[in-house]
Amino acid sequence: QLNIxxxxxxxxxxxxxxxxSCAVSGRTVDYYHIGWFxxxxxxxxxxxxxxxxxxxxxxxxxxxxxxxxISRDNAKNTVYLQMNSxxxxxxxxxxxxxxxxxxxxxxxxxxxxxxxLQVTVSS
Length: 123
Fold this sequence. Notes:
mainly beta; seven-stranded mixed β-sheet; 11 strands; globular
C-alpha cells in the first residue's frame, strides 16, 4: 500500500513563495513518476507539474512555467514543488500523486493520490 502525504500549503500573499512536499511511504519513491495536480471548486483537476522516476524529465503546465519547479529526493522518498511569484489564480487544493507505469502528466494516468492541501494566495 502506497501512502502519500502532502505538506507545506497555507496562505501566502501575491508574489510570495511556498514549497510543497510530497512524502511517499510503503514503497520507495523511485518506483514512481510523481505529479502535482490542483483543483478549484467547480473545475476539473488539472496537472501542474510531473517528474519522471529518475528525475530527468519534467513537465509543467503553461500557467506555471518559469514560476514553479518540481524536484525529487529519492533518498528521502520526497518530491517537492517550489512555487514562486504566486498569484491568486494559483489558489487551489494541491494534490500529489504517483504513477507506476504510464509516465504521462495527466490526471487519468495516476493511480495513487494524497489527501490534498489548500494553497491560498491572497492579500
